[in-house]
Amino acid sequence: MSPKHSSLPKVAPMTTFNMYMAAATQTKNLHLSNPRDVASLRTAAIASCGVTMAYQNGQQSYQVLKDIDLTVQKGDVQLLMGPSGSGKTTLLSILAGLLTPTSGRVCLLGQEITKMSRHQLAKFRLQNIGFIFQGFNLFPALTAAENIEVALNMKGIKGKAAKHEAQVLLEQVGLAPQAKLHPRDLSGGQKQRVAIARALSGNPRIVMADEPTAALDSHSGHTVIELLRRLAKEGGCTVLMVTHDPRIVSSADRVVYLEDGSIQENKQLSDNFL
Ligand SMILES: Nc1ncnc2c1ncn2[C@@H]1O[C@H](COP(=O)(O)OP(=O)(O)OP(=O)(O)O)[C@@H](O)[C@H]1O
Ligand SMILES: [Mg+2]
C-alpha cells in the first residue's frame, strides 16, 4: 500500500476497498451493479465487455486485465480505485481508446470504439473525450494558455475565441495569473490544473482522469472535484476518475475497486447528491 493510505483507519477484518468506503462521509444505500448487462453497451456513456490485456515478456505473457465488464452511466461521476499496479491506468487508457485491448469490446456513447479505424477513433476521441494523464503531458515549449489553445485549435476553435476560452478554463481551475508561464515554471499542482483545464476544452461529453488530484493540496483538490462534479451534474458530462484519494468517494456516484487486474467491488453511492 502506498504511503498515501497510511493515515486510513486500521480495522483488522476490513478489505482495502471497505477502508476506502469507511473514509467516505456518505455511503448510504450501497448496492451492487449488474456489470453483465450487455444492453448497457449501447445505453451507457462508457461500457466494456470482457476486456482483457496481456503484455508479452519474452516467452511469458503477463495478464494485466482479466475479463473486465464495466459501465458508467451518462452524467455519473465514477471512481476507479485500487492498489498500485492493479491495472487502473491500463484500463482507463483502453476505455479512452488510447490502448487496444488484447480482447473484449468497448463502447463509448453507444459507439463501439474497438471496431473503429484509427482515423475514426482519433476523430471520435477529439470530439468526445477529455483525458487527464497521470503525468500531465503538457508541451514544455508552450505556456499554460497555449497548451490549452492548441487543444482548442485541434477541436476547430481558433484565434480570439480559443484565447478567450483558454482564459475562462484557466480561471475555472484558479490559474488565470499563471496563463503566460511555461510548465517548467509551474508547480506540480499547477501543471496538473493546466492539464485539467486542457481536458475540459471544447466541452467533452466524457472526461477520463488519471489521479487528477494526486499533486494537489486538499483545497485545490476539492476545487477540481467540485468542477468535475458540476460538469457531470449540470453539463451532462460523464466523469471516470482513477484515484487513491478516499476524500473523493463522497463526491462520486459509483466506485469500482480493481485488484490484480479484476474488478473486486462495484458499488453505487446513490444518496450522494440528495
Ligand atoms: N507497456 C507495458 N508493458 C508491460 N507491462 C506493463 C505495461 N504497461 C503497464 N504494465 C504493467 O501492468 C500493470 C498495471 O499497470 P498500471 O499502470 O495500469 O497500474 P496502476 O493501477 O495504474 O498503478 P498506479 O496506481 O501505480 O498508477 C503493472 O504491473 C505494469 O508494470
Ligand atoms: Mg496508474
What does this entry look like structurally?
31% of the residues lie in helices and 25% in strands. It has helices at residues 16-23, 40-43, 88-95, 118-128, 144-154, 159-172, 188-199, 218-235, and strands at residues 30-32, 46-57, 60-72, 77-81, 103-108, 111-112, 129-132, 206-210, 238-242, 254-259, 262-269. Helix 5 packs parallel to helix 7 (188-199). The longest helix is centred in the C-terminal third of the chain and has 18 residues, at 218-235. The chain binds adenosine-5'-triphosphate and magnesium ion (MG). Magnesium ion (MG) binds at residues 88-89, 134, 210.
List strands and helices in order, with pairings.
Elements: H1 16-23, E1 30-32, H2 40-43, E2 46-57, E3 60-72, E4 77-81, H3 88-95, E5 103-108, E6 111-112, H4 118-128, E7 129-132, H5 144-154, H6 159-172, H7 188-199, E8 206-210, H8 218-235, E9 238-242, E10 254-259, E11 262-269
Parallel strand pairs: 4-9, 4-10, 7-8, 8-9
Antiparallel strand pairs: 1-11, 2-3, 2-5, 5-6, 10-11
Helix pairs in contact: 5-6, 5-7, 6-7
